[in-house]
Specification:
The protein folds into two domains: 88 residues, Uncharacterised protein YqeY/AIM41, N-terminal domain (Hypothetical Protein Yqey, Chain: A, domain1); 52 residues, Arc Repressor Mutant, subunit A, CATH 1.10.10.410. 75% of the residues lie in helices and 0% in strands. It has seven helices and no strands. Helix 2 crosses helix 3 and helix 5 crosses helix 7. The protein is globular. It holds the Pfam family YqeY. GO terms for molecular function: carbon-nitrogen ligase activity, with glutamine as amido-N-donor. InterPro entries: Asn/Gln_tRNA_amidoTrase-B-like (IPR003789), GatB_Yqey_C_2 (IPR023168), YqeY/Aim41 (IPR019004), YqeY/Aim41_N (IPR042184). This is GatB/YqeY domain-containing protein.
């Protein structure tokens, strides 16, 4: 079952359950998918990779909006963003915790032969591709920087 079909089925369930917050989040995801499909000029759908990128971007936007609302002391709007984020994260692969992320990055560093901070770009290119959707770009960048600056790996 494609992501679009899962979303449509979940929209029906949310409507029956009268869960307005979940329904709003699901409709926003469906809207993103439909926009991406029409950009391509066809109705045969988008790739699974493109779907994950859409969801990752949407999750990042919600997270950043929630942070802004928290700084502005707007808990009502922050809660809306966090609720939508929780729904979006249901469709994303499980995120790596910091320990697992470091283990994956150490393997990538050894595989590409990185030896110091000057190899950051080489490692980031591979890590971004392999860990897409499973770790935030900022978290990857910070961990790679820490690992490459610490030459005892």
């Amino acid at each position: 079952m494609s992501l679009k079909q899962r979303i449509e089925a979940d929209i029906k369930q949310a409507m029956l359950a009268k869960d307005k917050a979940r329904l709003q989040a699901l409709r926003s995801i469906k809207s993103l998918i439909l926009l991406a499909e029409t950009e391509k000029g066809g109705t045969d759908g988008i790739s699974e990779d493109a779907e994950m990128k859409l969801l990752t971007k949407a999750a990042k936007q919600r997270r950043e909006s929630a942070e802004i609302y928290a700084r502005q002391q707007r808990p009502d709007l922050e809660q809306v963003e966090l609720a939508e984020l929780a729904v979006i994260e249901e469709y994303l692969p499980k995120q790596l915790d910091e320990g697992d992320l470091r283990i994956q990055l150490l393997e990538i560093i050894q595989r590409v032969g990185a030896s110091g901070p000057s190899d950051l770009g080489k490692v980031m290119g591979v890590a971004s591709r392999e860990l897409a959707g499973r770790a935030d770009g900022r978290a990857i960048s910070k961990a790679v920087g820490d690992l490459l600056n610490n030459t005892d790996f």
